[in-house]
Fold this protein.
Amino acid sequence: MDARAPGISPGRITEEDIARNFSDLHPPFAPHEAAVAADRCYFCYDAPCITACPTAIDIPLFIRQIQAGHPENAAETILDANILGGMCARVCPTEELCEEACVREMAEGKPVEIGRLQRYATDTLMASGRHPFTRAPATGKSIAVVGAGPAGLACAHRLAMHGHDVTLYDAKPQPGGLNEYGIAAYKTPDDFAQEEVDWLLKIGGIALKTEHALGQQITLGALREAHDAVFLGIGLSGVNALRATGEDKDGTRDAVDFIADLRQSEDLTQLPVGRNVVVIGGGMTAVDAAVQSKLLGAETVTIAYRRDQSRMSASRYEQDLAASKGVRLMFNVQPKAIHGNGAVREIELEYTAQTDAGLTPTGETLRLAADQIFRAIGQRLDGAPDGLTLDGNKIAVDAAGRTSLDGVWAGGDCAAGGNDLTVTAVAEGRDAAESIHVALTV
Amino acid sequence: MADLTTDFVGIKSPNPFWLASAPPTDKEYNVRRAFEAGWGGVVWKTLGEEGPPVVNVNGPRYGAIYGADRRLLGLNNIELITDRPLQTNLDEIKIVKRDFPDRAMVVSLMVPCEEGAWKAILPRVEETGADGIELNFGCPHGMSERGMGSAVGQVPEYIEMVTRWCKQNTRMPVIVKLTPNITDIRKPAEAAHRGGADAVSLINTINSITSVDLDLMAPEPTIDGKGSHGGYCGPAVKPIALSMVSEIARNAETHGLPISGIGGVTTWRDAAEFIALGCGTVQVCTAAMTYGFKIVEEMTAGLSIYLDEKDLSLPDLVGRAVPNVTDWQHLNLNYVTKARIDQDACIKCGRCYAACEDTSHQAISIGEGRVFEVIDAECVACNLCVDVCPVENCITMEELAPGTVDPRTGKTVEADYANWTTHPNNPAARAAE
């Protein structure tokens, strides 16, 4: 073990520290804690928390069900609206959604802990192994769902429930999408993402085909011919470039790849990380990469964001989490050049100012020691099939998720609109399924 | 610091906080700890007649009702009177009274409804140096099946008879403890008064089943698959106790009869309320059984602070609220109020709206941005919105000044007091004309 080994190196901290660092960010409630937390809910009329939830979970009802001693029933209330309620309980920025809307947030700055209560309910049900949803009589219709991320899983489950047969394709070896490859490990420890997918598939009627990438093993044209409808939940596989000189030097990579490696790693003590890490970006991916670098033992970790703090898309809670783990947050700086002889040694950042002409560099620069640089400045849609109308650089959809192609729906991050949150992807997948169901049966 | 010294029917104590006759006062060890903690007095757990003592069940004796975070709100018990030999109790009473001469030592008694039984026990209690006796006519479980406890307390004639026997056979002050398991608390109080009681104490516990075990299909606490009703006490019973105390305090026949208040006293404030309704002392049990004896420190300090703030002496407080307890028919019907919602304090939960819209008078509107407002033309001032609002003082009742028009009735609010007895809708009022 060498904490200060130069370059990108594994084993900076002990196995015990790794285990502690990557344990559950929000440990689950014990039953009494859940009862006390549930008791704080006021059961608001037309509750603001429901409105704030992209999947519109009946939050006061499920909390009352916990209070009344039926957490599994509470879970059914949750899952009925959001089949990935277990993951959402872990990864939702509740501080910007339901818990921000909670009247007790307004009253005391201490909202009902909706996220943790949701996890208590869904964990209880999943631990029982029971899958409470059943399939309607078979319709004889078949639907291809492309992408086994949150949107695709939600869509597939709802379609299966309605009695349709679903083939669920995913390019990666494991289903789950960003839940499996793109979220910080401490938010979903103990292989929860796969457990949740396994549990979800218990509905039946969903044939999972992994390592089937659109445009490679499968094509939209062939899917449209073979199935009655197609849902695209293919996410955003492209990563934006930095546009700084020296970007090709060793040690510079996409944050999403680092996070995916981390999530797939069997032994985090063997996962290499830089001694001095700089993350470029201001979203959740930037925070997840930065925090996990620090937790792996990087000596210094800096998030460099080109605009001011108020524009940062990572929530204040996430920013504070990063700061509490020792990540330095820098604002109004953008990469100008990456220096080093073959491998990265330093990054040169330039200060920016928001002017009437937009964001402009000021000419003032600084250099930070860096042996690893992560790009986290956003993902973009890569390889959208031909024939689909785009809106901006995403697939154009109507309110029900219909694309410009007959019989093709889309949802999740790849579709225009929305906010790139897991919970929003679930809502879009679910709603598209309802739309497909109506289109195929009515 | 206000002087909390109490003289209750000649029984002196350094403060009005006594421990009620119950498990905490069953033996020397507990009572010593209580006195060391600062309790003003105790009513020693009920003694029975000489002979083999009663036995208790060997399964659970208590059941509970909880509020949030397992806060104990109500306790139910099926324990009987002391199950220790009479002489053991008497010896301990004597020794504790000797060591704590400034504390009130009252002994609770329950023997069969025969004069001989009372005649036999009274001198033995007197011999301990105890300050007084309390007749247990209240226990609703077990002993009542044997013709004692509430079986006596439910028959005013028995109360009067036994009280008279006691007064005739002891110099000690006699306090009669009343059961709430009757329809009109004034009748047993009057009977005690006629029998010569120096004071009454109330309430004893209320017949109750705390809950039903839905797996065993048996009441709780459950003894080998069966349960029987017990006696309910604790914070949940306080409103019942306050009402019963007030009935006795304002009843012409019993007005002025000293009362020792019992029923859910948990903090100094509860005690002050009982005292304001006419109690000279209060007795505590559940709060001590929940939190231990140390709570008396908060109680004495709190009552003292309150008296100082109000510039009252303890005797000044006794019965001070009694004149304001009246019958419904005498309430002022010209007192008109409307609910007012403080928009700055409102957290927009909408509970007032749901309560009023679903279950009351449709007198609250919900506007853009979840703004809740009272519709004066519908508001009958029922107070439900105030009661369900989670924010204290967010919703209040505002009096309409005389001369203004109540938009609900279209009538001008009159300054004069008027009640049901003279209301034109009252058939009795018309008949009287």
